[in-house]
Amino acid sequence: MKIPRVLIASFLVGTALTASFYAGAAWSASPPPPLQAVQRASEPRTGLTGAEVPVIELFEEAAPSVVFINTTQRRRDFFFNVSEVPGGSGSGIVWDRQGHIVTNYHVIAEARTANVTLADGTEWLATYVGGAREKDLAVLHIEAPPQSLSPIKIGTSHDLQVGQSLLAIGNPFGLDNTLTTGIVSALGRQIESSDGVPIRDVIQTDAAINPGNSGGPLLDSAGRLIGVNTAIVSPSGAYAGIGFAIPINTVNWVVADLIAYGRIVRPSLGLEFFPINLARRASIDGAVIYRVAPGGAADLAGLLPATRSSRGFQPGDIMLRVEGQDVRTEAELNLVLEAYEVGDAVTIEFRRGDEVLQVQATLQEPRGSG
What we know:
Structural class: alpha+beta
């Protein structure tokens, strides 16, 4: 049914008048008589729950071992003037009372300076001790008095189980001493470091890890360090329920090397490979040995390098596996060797011509090559 225009106009006018009346009434109404304001009584609580108490105690014990790291970077403007500007920020862990601070390599990778703020609020200029880009770990040093340093408790990661409780402490988005909780979501993950080398046996957790948590501790329910938070998987760049931590079994030996030598020191086979792109171009499945150090482990085991003669270039032996693990690059060889020490014997499987052979080599002190 078609509504006459006069009815529509009357309805709109009536609605407008009604709205105007109520609005006017609201503004012109007299205020209510004043009432005496009384605060509401608080409800007493009987105490913290059994699940809350250990988490609070754990945080209070571990928080002094977590530091806040701020960096500066050098910038050159259009006129080639050099200045220092704020860089990134992240977290770190008090490793010992000598002042060593452990963090992620990417936190300080481009830093000109790094300042470490302890839990007591004191700030210290840090010096660089050493770093391992391939493990995303670095060690700094501060000249803080030993009594102001609270080294974190060290745990183990080889015996972790999916589902066990974890806690992360860090400085996400610059909010220092932030606690998040979660579980071990998965074990044995593999991520890539900033230079493309795989980091194996990484811990996956759903404890909230955000930018700024990098370099902070992942703790078990006993308050022991079981990993260093290093990365997240997120379309937005913020927390999405998937975080990764470098396991303490790796952190422990890497940090020891960085403090002692400033870099990772692995036992050596004393050899070098041809670049992998050359091997692939020649359709070779394996690592082609280019050079063997005289007197090195590979030399003593009988492995042969490439040679040049009147007959032309002759490729060396082709390494296939070490201790049953495939080796096609120097990075893969390093990942295998990091599980061994100088003096250990390893089995090498290699190809020489049409034959596949095996030898044992005794690892030596590093000589600058594999």
